[in-house]
Structures are given as structure tokens and as C-alpha cells.
Amino acid sequence: MFYQVSKEDEYLFKGKRKRLVEVLKLKGIKSQTVLSAIEKIPRHLFFDNTTARPALLDHAYSDKALPIGAGQTISHPYTVAFQTEQLDIKAGEKVLEIGTGCGYQTAVLIEVGAKVYSIERQKTLHDKTKLFLPYIGYSSAKLVYGDGYKGLPQFAPFDKIIVTAGAPYIPNDLLLQLNIGGIMLIPIGEGDTQEMIWLHKISHNSFNKKVLGNFKFVPLLQNKATGY
Ligand code: SAH
Question: Helices 104-111 and 32-40 sit at what angle, rounded to 10 degrees?
């Protein structure tokens, strides 16, 4: 079912990953733990398993968003690196991810030491990623099929929350499920681009907020998907 990993691939793609890390450094990523995670994780294995694969493999380590099935895309490596760096994760912290997708961001969070809980509303993507992540050695994440707007109250509070789709507003349930002292990164906006919002929870009902530039995401949609 999944692309088989060969020794030759590993050699070829290792070099490509090193170059991607150089690109990310030039774009401003500084965290060594984040860069090491990107250097280690085989991004070329995360794509949609279709006839498009040969073309996609060529682009696996360019800074691009690429299809992962169910009409969704894997985020740009820079976006993944940027959001992870801004979360400032310490080993053992509980992190809630909204939008599991192909699990690439999930793997990066695991590599930087997080205990990850991740929600995906597309059943096909959830099912596939639930098999795939353990297949490549990432079995610690709790992957849930559900609606990210609601978060996971049964596992709250979370030290960090990362939303990986563009939201029209900040869901209140997510604010409630963030620990005091915690950080949330969420792209806000319904148009072509979203503003990356950084929130730091300083008490039950007060937050520091920063706007960290413009990014491009697929939309955060309401409810579980139907029809796939
Ligand atoms: N982190 C992912 C990014 C995937 S794109 C990766 O590294 O591949 C964003 C994902 O968010 C898509 O898979 C989309 O189906 C999912 N999504 C959109 N709205 C959602 C919601 N309300 N709850 C959970 N997932 C959602």
C-alpha cells in the first residue's frame, strides 16, 4: 500500500533534505531541533499514493505545498518549520494539532519532543495516516477522526495548539483547551491568504496576540467530511 523505502532512495533524498534545510535557514528558521527534524523525516513518502507520484517525488524537497489526497495538500516545509518554531515546544509537552492530513507536521512535532494529539475531518486521510505514521516509525501520536473546531476536551488542557488549515475565526473551544502559559498558532482568513496568529494564554480569559505574516492554507471546514 505504501511506497517502499530503498537504500538508494534514502541516499538520494538525504542530500535533498540537507539542501531543503539550507533553504529554510536562509528563509529565517533558526531552531536547531526543528531543522534537525526536517533533515530526518522522509517527506517524499508522505504524498498521495497515485500515478502522480513520480512527478511529486521530484518536488518533495522543494518548498511547495503538494497534494495528499481528498483534495488536500501537505503544507510548505517553510510553513511547517515556522509554525513549529513559533510553538517553542519543550520535550514532553502536550500538543494538539488540527488537520492531521498526511501526518508530516505530526511527525515534525513528534521529532521535537511533543506528545501529539491530532484531529482530521477526512476519514480517508485519517485512516491512511493512522497506518502510515507507525509504518515509518512514528507511533506515539493519538490520531482522532473528528471536527477540529471542537478540539479534544477529553485530553485537554494542551500546552500548545497548532491549526494547519485557514480558519474564519478562532474557535472558542480551542481557546478553552489551551493551558495557561500555552501558545496557539492559527492561520486566520477566508480569502486566498491567511494571517498567522500567535496567541499566548496568560489567564483563563486573557491572551497576548501577535500577527506573524501571511501564509496560504486550505480552509478549516466545519464538521466531519461526508462523501469521501
Ligand atoms: N498538517 C497537515 C496539513 C494538511 S492540510 C500535513 O502536514 O499534511 C490541512 C488539513 O486540515 C486537511 O487534511 C483538512 O482535511 C484538515 N481539516 C480541515 N478542516 C478541518 C477540521 N474542522 N477538523 C480537522 N481537520 C480539518
Answer: 130
**Residue nearest to ligand 1 atom 18, measured at CA:** 220
Cβ atoms 84, 60 nearer than 8 A: no
168: preceding bond cis by omega (within 30 degrees): no
Q: Break the chain into its structural domains and give their ranges.
A: 7-215
In the CATH scheme, what is the homologous superfamily, with its name and number, of domain 7-215? Vaccinia Virus protein VP39 (3.40.50.150)
Whole-prediction pTM value?
0.95
Q: Are 63 and 76 in contact (CB under 8 A)?
A: yes
For residue 220, which atom of ligand 1 is closest to its CA? 19
CA–centroid distance, residue 152 to ligand 1 (Å) = 15
Per residue in 208-228, pLDDT (tens digit) is: 999 999 999 999 999 888 754
CA 54 to centroid of ligand 1, rounded, Å: 24
